[in-house]
Amino acid sequence: MEAMDDMLLANWVNLHSSMKVPSSYMQPPEARPGTLFISSGKTIPVIDLGGNHHHHAETINQILKASEDYGFFQVINHGVCRDLMDDVMKVFKEFHSMPSKEKLNECSNGSCKLYTSGENHRRDAVHYWKDTLTHPCPPSSPQQYIKYWPNKPSNYRKVVGKYTEEVRKLGMKILEMLCEGLGIRREYFLCGGLSENPSLVVHHYPPCPDPTLTLGLAKHRDPSIITILLQDKNVRGLQVLKDDEWFGVDPIPYAFVVNIGLLLQIISNGRLIGAEHRVVTNLRNARTSVAYFINPSNESIIEPAKDLFVNGSTQKTMYKSMSYEEFRTNFFHKGPKIESELRN
Ligand SMILES: O=C(O)CCC(=O)C(=O)O
Ligand SMILES: [Fe+2]
């Protein structure tokens, strides 16, 4: 039997579908998901972006309120074409169902990463039930980067290129609306490299023989400005923590899930929340999710926006100013303790 550590999880599960969960994937009792799909009646807000300009102020209020209360919302009528959403999901599902060797070969040029469990498999105390493909998608020089993306399935670059362009437009539009609501200049995120380094992260969670023991993704907050997530239409898995309670983000076909990242929490001086979330696994169905992270360039300065402190504002800045590079170093070394590190 091929050692599990040498394979991507999707391929291992294909060969060993009737196996029990290996002990290296069993979460300690306190981290196990417990009741898998909670229906406490709480759902994250669903916001219709399709209204005409008369509804503009109301839409901004809805987005702002959802970002303050939950740090998460779903958007419908967002302008990204449904066929493109179907196509991109199909491409990623095809990618993850290719033989391990072929997938690794497509990601061997140093720009894309393909890994199983967490980013550093050998350092995971417990493994996570997923494989992940990730690559940069810089908006200013797409042609230069696309040639480093996987070239299989054969339409990968074309479909993913178009998709990232469309999702970026949506992400920037949402950021603009948040700026308007917060009282920050609308172009804030177009300046200082703040949105110049987006990346695409595609997770694949194979079916798991016992989802009560495992996690697909540990509890975390995103180290991004904002994340635009496309989730599988029919398979649940994503959960958000609110008021110490986990609740599911049930998929709505053709909606996007939007969540506030820790960087936007800082920029908004703590008004918007980078909420904790995690992913549970599923007994029968594989789940694929596609996250587009809007990230700054390394030199960008992350700090509460100066626009919040003008006109006699009595607010105090809650967070230190630091470069994105410094933030990342803190984030990856301090993990959950990062909050105290960032505060003034
Ligand atoms: O798979 C998901 O639904 C969530 C992914 C996620 O939270 C992340 O990539 O940061
Ligand atoms: Fe996340």
From TrEMBL:
Top-level lineage group: Eukaryota
SUPFAM superfamilies named among the record's database cross-references: Clavaminate synthase-like (SSF51197)
Keywords, sorted A to Z: Iron, Metal-binding, Oxidoreductase, Vitamin C
Listed InterPro entries: DIOX_N (IPR026992), IPNS-like_FE2OG_OXY (IPR044861), IPNS-like_sf (IPR027443), Oxoglu/Fe-dep_dioxygenase_dom (IPR005123), Plant_2OG-oxidoreductases (IPR050295)
Pfam families associated with the record: 2OG-FeII_Oxy, DIOX_N
Domain Fe2OG dioxygenase: 195-296
Family: Belongs to the iron/ascorbate-dependent oxidoreductase family.
Protein name from the UniProt record: Fe2OG dioxygenase domain-containing protein
Organism this protein belongs to: Stylosanthes scabra
Lineage of source species: Eukaryota, Viridiplantae, Streptophyta, Embryophyta, Tracheophyta
